[in-house]
Task: inverse folding
C-alpha cells in the first residue's frame, strides 16, 4: 500500500474493514475471525484508537505468531502480514467457508466493532446472509465522472475527516470507504455520492406523509425525496421536526427542550429503514408517516431468517453492511447493531409506550406512539402554510422554507434553536432571516430572547 493510502485510511478512522491496534496482542485473532466472517479487512498494528501513529516493527518471530493465529482458527485462515512504513498491516480476506471460529467462539464485524456471537446469532446470520449484498455489488452504469466531489466533501465535513478532496483523488477515497473495488464503483457508492441518483435507481426514494386523520386518508403534507441516502435521512428528520411538538421540560433549575417523541428514537428508526432496506425491490419506497397518535417508519424488506418480531434487537444482522458502516462514521447510528435497543431505551426514558415492530409481508414497520393529549393544531398552521405556499413559497430557497416552517410551528423559536435544527452556517441562517423580513413574510416582535415571530 502507498503511504498516502494508509494515511487516508487512518484519517477516516476505524470502520467495517479497518481495525487499529496500538500494539500487537494475540487477541487480534478475534478480529481476524470477525473479518473472515464478514467481508474481509485490515488490522493496522501501531496505531491508536484515535488514529495516532505509534509504530511497531515487524520481526520474524512476530510474523510467525500472526501466521500461527490464522492457522489455529477453524477452519484455517490465511492472512497477509507486511511492514508498511511505520506500522504493521495484517490483511484478512473474506472467508469462503464461513463461519470461522477461534477457541470455539465466533465473531463478526459490525461497523467498527468486533462482536462475539451467540450460537443462535451465528446460525441466524450465516443461514440468511447472501454471498454478496446489494450495496457491495459493482454498478456497471456509473463512472468517476458521475460522482459528486461536493457530496464527498460534505460527508467528510460531517464525519470530521480532515482530507483534501479533489477529482484526481476520487479512486483512493472511494476505495478507502469500501465504495470501489477493482476500479468498479459499487451500489453503495452510487447511493451516497452519485450526482443524479435517479439516473441509476428509479426506486431509491423516501416518501414523507402527514395525515390529519388516524386512518391515513386525509393527507395535509407530502414530500417525495429522490436523492442520496444522507439527504434522504436529513429530509426525513426535518419533516418529523416540523410535525412533532417541541416541549419544554423543567428539571430542578434547568430547562430542556424535547420532542414529544424522543429524537434519538426516530433518528434510529429512519436510519434503520435506510440501512436494512431491500434495494432490489423495485417500485417501492421507504415511508415516514405522521398520524395524530403515532409515527410509522416503513421499509421495503422482510426480516432475515432467524429474526422475528419477538427476538428483534437480540440478534444483529444487517442487509447492507457498507451502508451501515457509512452511517456509523457520521455517528447517526450506534455501532454494533444496537439501534432497536436504543429505540426502546429512548421511549422508556421518556415514559412513553414501547415501540411496536411489525413485519407485514415484504415490509418492516416501526411504530412510535405519540403521547396522549397531544394536539396537532394543524388547522391554524395549515391555513398559514397554504397561504404562504400559494403566493411565494416556490420562490424561496430551501433554507428560507425550512426557517419559515419552523416559525409557523413555533413562533417563539430563537435563532439559536433554528441553528440546532438546520445544518447550515450561522451566517446563512441570519442572511435567510433578513431576506424573509425584506420579503415582508415575517417580523420579530419583542426581544430576541423573550419575543416571538409573526407571519405577515
Result:
Amino acid at each position: 500500500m502507498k503511504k498516502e493510502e494508509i494515511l487516508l485510511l487512518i484519517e477516516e478512522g476505524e470502520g467495517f474493514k479497518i481495525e487499529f491496534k496500538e500494539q500487537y496482542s494475540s487477541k487480534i485473532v478475534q478480529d481476524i475471525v470477525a473479518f473472515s466472517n464478514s467481508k474481509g479487512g485490515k488490522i493496522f498494528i501501531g496505531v491508536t484508537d484515535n488514529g495516532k501513529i505509534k509504530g511497531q516493527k515487524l520481526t520474524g518471530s512476530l510474523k510467525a505468531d500472526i501466521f500461527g493465529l490464522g492457522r489455529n482458527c477453524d477452519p484455517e485462515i490465511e492472512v497477509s502480514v507486511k511492514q508498511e512504513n511505520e506500522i504493521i498491516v495484517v490483511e484478512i480476506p473474506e472467508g469462503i467457508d464461513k463461519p470461522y471460529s477461534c477457541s470455539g467462539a465466533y465473531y463478526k464485524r459490525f461497523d467498527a466493532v468486533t462482536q462475539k456471537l451467540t450460537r443462535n446469532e451465528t446460525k441466524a446470520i450465516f443461514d440468511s446472509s447472501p454471498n454478496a449484498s446489494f450495496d457491495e455489488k459493482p454498478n456497471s452504469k456509473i463512472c468517476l465522472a458521475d460522482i459528486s466531489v461536493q457530496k464527498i466533501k460534505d460527508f467528510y465535513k460531517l464525519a470530521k475527516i480532515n482530507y483534501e478532496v479533489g477529482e484526481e483523488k476520487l479512486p483512493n477515497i472511494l476505495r478507502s470507504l469500501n465504495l470501489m473495488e477493482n476500479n468498479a464503483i459499487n451500489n453503495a457508492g452510487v447511493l451516497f455520492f452519485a450526482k443524479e441518483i435517479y439516473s441509476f435507481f428509479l426506486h431509491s426514494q423516501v416518501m414523507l406523509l402527514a395525515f390529519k386523520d388516524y386512518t391515513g386518508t386525509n393527507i395535509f403534507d407530502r414530500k417525495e425525496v429522490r436523492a442520496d441516502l444522507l439527504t434522504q435521512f436529513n429530509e426525513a428528520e426535518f419533516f418529523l421536526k416540523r410535525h412533532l411538538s417541541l416541549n419544554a421540560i423543567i428539571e430542578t433549575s434547568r430547562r430542556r427542550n424535547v420532542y414529544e417523541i424522543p429524537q434519538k428514537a426516530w433518528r434510529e428508526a429512519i436510519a434503520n429503514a435506510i440501512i436494512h432496506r431491500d434495494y432490489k425491490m423495485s417500485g417501492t419506497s421507504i415511508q415516514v408517516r405522521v398520524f395524530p397518535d403515532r409515527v410509522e417508519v416503513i421499509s421495503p424488506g422482510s426480516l432475515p431468517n432467524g429474526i422475528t418480531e419477538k427476538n428483534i434487537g437480540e440478534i444483529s444482522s444487517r442487509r447492507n453492511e457498507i451502508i451501515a458502516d457509512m452511517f456509523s462514521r457520521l455517528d447517526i447510528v450506534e455501532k454494533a447493531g444496537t439501534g432497536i435497543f436504543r429505540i426502546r431505551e429512548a421511549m422508556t426514558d421518556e415514559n412513553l409506550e414501547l415501540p411496536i415492530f411489525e413485519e407485514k409481508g415484504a415490509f418492516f414497520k416501526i411504530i412510535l406512539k405519540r403521547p396522549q393529549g397531544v394536539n396537532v393544531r394543524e388547522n391554524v398552521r395549515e391555513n398559514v402554510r397554504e397561504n404562504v405556499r400559494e403566493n411565494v413559497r416556490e420562490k424561496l430557497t430551501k433554507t428560507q422554507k425550512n426557517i419559515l416552517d419552523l416559525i409557523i410551528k413555533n413562533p417563539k423559536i430563537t435563532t439559536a434553536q433554528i441553528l440546532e435544527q438546520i445544518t447550515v452556517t450561522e451566517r446563512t441562517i441570519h442572511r435567510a432571516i433578513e431576506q424573509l423580513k425584506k420579503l415582508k413574510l415575517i417580523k420579530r416582535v419583542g426581544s430576541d430572547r423573550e419575543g416571538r415571530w409573526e407571519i405577515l
Remarks:
- Residues 147 and 193 are 6 Å apart (CA to CA).
- The first strand starts at residue 18 and ends at 21.
- Residues 206-369 form a domain with the Heat Shock Protein 90 fold (CATH 3.30.565.60).
